[in-house]
Specification:
The protein is α+β, with helices and mostly antiparallel strands and 112 residues long. It is built from three helices and three strands, in the order H-E-E-E-H-H. It has a single domain, classed as Metalloproteases ("zincins"), catalytic domain (Zincin-like), CATH 3.30.2010. Strands 1-3-2 form a three-stranded mixed β-sheet. Helix 2 packs across helix 3.
Length: 112
């Protein structure tokens, strides 16, 4: 994946369609992009409570397509769990169930 916001948005759209039934924010409801800075060593992060929902991937730490895809799917799982009403889920059981659902759907198959 090229480290461009357009490529990231395209992957997000594809994943949203295939693994989230198009239910995650799109268009003006989504602010997605790469950053070239370290945020406490995080590869990626999102703010699902913001409008628009904000997703960032760290270009300094993510260098392969597989890393980018898995980080993006991870952040999309946070958004999905938040939208299901679990506002403080972090990496707890609801998040783990969503990640397992993605794995069972084959979301990570070509990247892992």
């Amino acid at each position: 994946m090229q480290q461009t916001d357009a490529a990231l948005r395209q992957y997000y759209g594809t994943f949203n369609k295939h693994y989230f039934n198009g239910a995650l924010p799109t268009g003006k409801g989504l602010d997605i992009g790469w950053v070239k800075r370290d945020r406490n060593g995080d590869e990626a992060w999102c703010y699902p409570s913001e409008n628009p929902v904000r997703v960032r991937l760290n270009a300094g730490l993510i260098v392969t397509v597989s890393q980018a895809a898995m980080a993006l799917l991870h952040e999309m799982a946070h958004i999905a769990v938040y939208m299901q009403g679990h506002k403080q889920a972090k990496h707890g059981p609801y998040f783990q169930m969503e990640m397992l659902r993605l794995a069972m759907a084959g979301a990570f198959r070509i990247y892992w």
